[in-house]
Design brief:
Layout: H1 2-19, H2 36-39, H3 41-58, H4 65-91, H5 96-120, H6 127-146
Helix pairs in contact: 1-3, 1-5, 3-4, 4-5, 4-6
């Protein structure tokens, strides 16, 4: 159910900023343009919300779920630019169908990573580092939404 939630919420998230009349506050959480950086929000924030819920529900049954979820947030988020730049570099252009497939692959592989790491506990020793990394990425999303660095990653392709 988590993957379905992230997929639906992420897909709808693509339009929230525009639907809101370009609300300044909502821009921190939803893409404000078509840049690769802003598209990473489509996974990051829905997965963060989903992780808070799943962590609360599954913590007793799966003691390593917190580190697994944090790792899944980071893994899926960074798969988006990796997959996007790989396919668009090969094709020489981007394609909407492949953009959406990139998002679906990121969600699917992110949840596979969560599942495996929840069972193996391999990420448990890095829990504090994972918390810091997710927090820093969230801060970067907030900062770079309205003050993006002048590099291509933050520009609409």
């Amino acid at each position: 159910m988590g993957a379905v939630f992230v997929t639906l919420a992420g897909t709808l998230s693509h339009f929230v900023y525009e639907w809101s009349g370009e609300s300044f506050l909502l821009g921190f959480f939803f893409p404000v343009n078509e840049s690769t950086w802003e598209h990473m929000k489509l996974y990051f924030f829905p997965m963060l919300v989903c992780s808070l819920i799943l962590n609360r529900k599954l913590k007793t049954e799966y003691p390593c779920i917190t580190s697994a979820l944090l790792g899944g947030i980071l893994f899926g988020t960074f798969l988006i630019p990796i997959l996007f730049y790989t396919y668009s570099g090969i094709l020489g252009r981007n394609c909407f169908i492949l953009d959406f497939a990139t998002f679906l692959a990121s969600v699917t592989l992110g949840f596979i990573a969560v599942y495996r790491n929840a069972l193996s506990c391999k990420l448990a020793p890095y829990l504090n580092w994972l918390k810091v990394a997710v927090f820093v990425i969230a801060l970067c999303f907030f900062l770079f939404t309205y003050f993006p660095p002048a590099i291509g990653f933050f520009e609409t392709p």
